[in-house]
Amino acid sequence: MDRWVEKVAVVTGASAGIGAAIAEALVKEGLIVAGFARRTDRVEKLAKKLQDANAKGKLHAVKVDMTKENEIIDGFNWVKKNLGPIHVLVNNAGVARFDALIDSDTQKWRDIFDTNVIGLSIATREAVKDMRANNVDGHIIHINSIVGHQVLNFPSANAYPASKFAVT
């Protein structure tokens, strides 16, 4: 982890759960983290908690809805302008909508694919463009799910496993 001290990481879905835990761990290791989230108040609260965790690490809340391409691009532009070149991207944001496929509605499917596949792809594209432009040998990590690797008997998951297989 010494390689990444004072380097910039972007973590999507940083307001709760795995994303918040990843953001916290990276800050404690000395990284400068941009936490992308719709609920920036949660990221800001975590940032305050982490103020004294590591003198070199810091968490910044960046309002980004991963279903909106313009917000993703604006988020990456903010990071480049305010924090510097991107070295690490952790694509963690994800959603699931649980109901039977035949009872679900189209918007729920769009939410799943727009967040889990399209948003992840846009974020990856933007991070790679920045890494290439700055000659950064960085890392991109896609947080996935077991349902992206094997078919489970989970009837109410409907489009969610398909989105996770797309990530795989």
Automatic annotation (TrEMBL):
Q: Does the keyword Oxidoreductase apply?
A: yes
Q: What keywords would UniProt list here?
A: Oxidoreductase
GO MF annotations for this entry?
oxidoreductase activity
The domain of life is: Eukaryota
Instruction: Please give one Pfam family short name.
Output: adh_short
Entry's transmembrane regions: none
| Family (UniProt) | Belongs to the short-chain dehydrogenases/reductases (SDR) family.
Which protein is depicted?
Farnesol dehydrogenase
Organism from which the protein derives: Agrilus planipennis
Species lineage:
Eukaryota, Metazoa, Ecdysozoa, Arthropoda, Hexapoda
